[in-house]
Amino acid sequence: MIHNSSINTTSSLIYPDIYNYQVLSNQPLKLGIMASGNGSNFEVIAQAIADGKINAQIQVLIYNNPGAKAAVRAENWGVKSVLLNHRDYKNREKFDSQVVQILQQHDVEFVIMAGWMRLVTKVLIDAFPNRMINIHPSLLPSFKGVQAVEQALVAKVKITGCTVHLVSLEVDSGEILIQAAVPVLPDDTSETLHARIQVQEHRILPMAISLLTKGNS
Ligand code: GAR
Questions:
Q1: Each residue of 83-142: pLDDT tens digit?
Q2: Centre of ligand 1 from the C-alpha of residue 117, in Å
Q3: Residue of 198, 199, 202, 205 best suited for mutating to test ligand 1, as the one with most atoms within 8 Å of CB
C-alpha cells in the first residue's frame, strides 16, 4: 500500500542537475514568448528575469486565444502582448508567417513556446532555427501531442514529468534540453497530476532559458 504522504513530490529529479545556475552573459537575450491560455510559465519567466536569474528581456507575448490570462499577466509585467487569433487565418502557414512578422518586428532573438497549443510549421521554424524551445507536460518521447497528462494516466505510468526541448518540425521531437520527473500518485486526477507537473515546469523552463543565455555573451 502506498501512502501519498510518504512520497516527496517537491524534490523531483531534474536532469541536468543545474540548481546553481548563474547568469554569465552581458547582453540580455531578447525573448518572444508564445502562450495560449493561463500563462503561468510566462509568469515564472518574467519573475526569473526580475529576480536576476535570467539575463533576458521579454520583447513581446503572442497569444492566440482572446481572453487568455497570459495577456493579463503580460500587462501586469508591463510586457507588450499581441493577439493573433489563428481562427482568422486560412492555414497554419499564413498564421505562422504573421507570427514571424510580429516576432521580427519586436527584434526577438529567441522564442519560447510556453503553453502554445498550436502545431507550428516550417515557416516559423525556419525563421528561428535552433532558436525556439517548447515546454511539454511529459517525459518525452512519451506522450507527445495533446492531453499528455491524460495520456500518462491512461497508460498507468508511475513516473511522468515535463520536458524542455528545441522545436523541430515533427511535433514534440526536437533535442531534449532539460527534464524533471514527477511521481504519479494512486488517486491522481489529470488536474492534481498537472498541478504537480507544473511545479516542476516552473523550475526547469527558467533554468533552460538561463542555460541558453550563457551562449549569448
Ligand atoms: C503547460 O503545462 C505546458 O507544458 C502545456 O500547457 C501548459 C500551459 O500552462 N503545453 C503543452 O501541452 C504543449 N503541447 P500555462 O499556460 O500555465 O503556462
A1: 999 999 999 999 999 999 999 999 999 999 999 999 999 999 999 999 999 999 999 999
A2: 8
A3: 198
Question: What residues flank ligand 1, with Cβ below 6 Å?
Answer: 35, 37-41, 114-115, 117, 135-137, 148, 162, 198, 201
Global confidence as pTM:
0.90
> Which amino acid makes up residue 53?
K
Whole-number Å distance, alpha carbon 131 to ligand 1 midpoint, is 19
pLDDT at 22: 45
CB atoms within 10 A of CB 16: 11
Q: Which of 117, 151, 179, 191 to mutate to test the pocket of ligand 1 (most atoms within 8 A of CB)?
A: 117
Asked which of 44-58, 70-84, 201-215 is least confident by mean pLDDT, the reply is 201-215
> Given pLDDT bands bounded at 50, 70 and 90, which one contains residue 25?
low
Calculate helix-pair angle for 69-76, 40-50, nearest 10 degrees: 20
